[in-house]
Amino acid sequence: MAIAPALLEVTGLGRRYGNAPHEVVALHSIDFAVQLGEMVAIMGPSGSGKSTLLTIAGGLEAPSSGTVRLGNQQLEKLSSTELAEVRRRHIGFVFQGFNLLTGLTAVENIGAPLELDGMAPKEARRQAQEVLEAVGLGDRANAFPDDLSGGERQRVAIARGLVGDRQMLLADEPTGALDTETGASIMQLLRSACTPNRAVVVVTHDPNVAAWADRVVTLRDGNVESTYRPAGAA
Ligand SMILES: Nc1ncnc2c1ncn2[C@@H]1O[C@H](COP(=O)(O)OP(=O)(O)O)[C@@H](O)[C@H]1O
Ligand SMILES: [Mg+2]
Question: Which domain holds residue 40?
Answer without folding.
Answer: 8-228
